[in-house]
Amino acid sequence: MKRFIFIILPSFLLAQKLKAQLVTAEDRTLIEAFGKDFLWGTSCSAYQIEGAWNEGGKSESVWDVFAQRRGKIYQNENANTAVDFYHRYKEDIRLHKELNFKVFRFSIAWTRILPNGTGQVNQEGIDFYHKVIDECIAQGVEPWITLYHWDIPQVLEDKGGWTNRAVVEWFTEYTRVLAREYGSKVKNWMVFNEPAAFTSLGYLVGYHAPGKRGISKFMRAAHHTCLAMAESGRTIREEVPNARIGTNFSCSYVESFEGLKKHDKAARRMDAMLNRMFIEPSLGMGYPTADFPGLKRIEKYMLPGDAEKLKFHFDFIGLQNYFRVVVKRSIIPLVWGNQVKAEKRGVPVNEMGFEIYPEGIYQVLKQFDAYAGVDHLIITENGVCVEDNVEEGKVHDIARIDFFRAYLAQVLRAKNEGVPVEGYFVWSLTDNFEWSEGYRPRFGLIHVDYTTQKRTIKDSGYWFQELLQK
Fold this sequence. Notes:
15 strands; eight-stranded parallel β-barrel; alpha/beta; TIM Barrel; three-stranded mixed beta sheet; 17 helices
């Protein structure tokens, strides 16, 4: 027995020493400066992690269908299994707790709750999310629900999806079911994840599900999304009076290429589309047509009273930032501008080729703080995909740690200047299916072997674990 201890103890102490070396005194000062009430969490989405695509009474979503179309996903991959959260949720929530995060933000699959999009409720789906919520609570982790993360039921897409104005009623019905089921357990609710992304990528350029293209499709989808966002908020307020209700916007700091004035109008149009188009109607400001005249086309899809229906005061706004956007004027319709790729500008990039620009998160925090009526901000997604390699059971992702150091310093800079930023959620807890990019980009604090589903905490996960411990 003594010999056994002699062999094991040095390796254990070495592991502890290596973990401790990840955290510097400056890191501790940085995290402590956010204060004890600051929220630390991780984010994920149903389609990207759950798998079990045809289990538990679930129907097909647009992504289940889109991913089966050859050439739409890197190496024709799909999320039929993903990281198998459906069967491994207890393990993953336990790991989340082990890393000392307090908030677990996840989305609910519409297709598990209402397989036909409307009508008959699927009890197996209802029960699954009750189990996820209950496991969070049992582990001392606060569950935050996102109602919609891009996976509308295919049966509704067959009727036009977000281009059909009836989607407002469909989504409101879905919202009411969730609010009544989980309202006694869940306090924090988020309506949409990145409406600018799923409407433009799905209905304007066709790069994401459902793969449709056209300016008119985009305009209809965008307006109906804004209407549904506000009506969903009102529904939650009615059903869960003490709820904190938010919604999450993708946002990128936008600049003119090389600071040249000839690109300024294109940059303003891009900013209006990426950052302003979906929040300003809810604030009672209408669509930003002054800087983006092309948006006037949306008015043909507005009915009398819509301007008032678009308004809803959210308790908080979630911001999701990954990269800066540099724009030059071009002949591309609608925006009449084009993003200048990071590789052409010789700047640092992640594994997907997007620029790593820490100051961008500071700039978008300042931009959204400038709105009257925006009183509480949370970074609901931020993270980076870098090359990860498992070596002797470990993943030494120092580049990811450096990313968090730089971005968190900019979040703190904004907070110190009075921006009401109250939390930071990492994307993501585990590696997962990254939409059209498949499994190649890895964002997780926990590495997943997609063949065996083995979880391995990366150094970045241990970094947070050390810094967030009481």
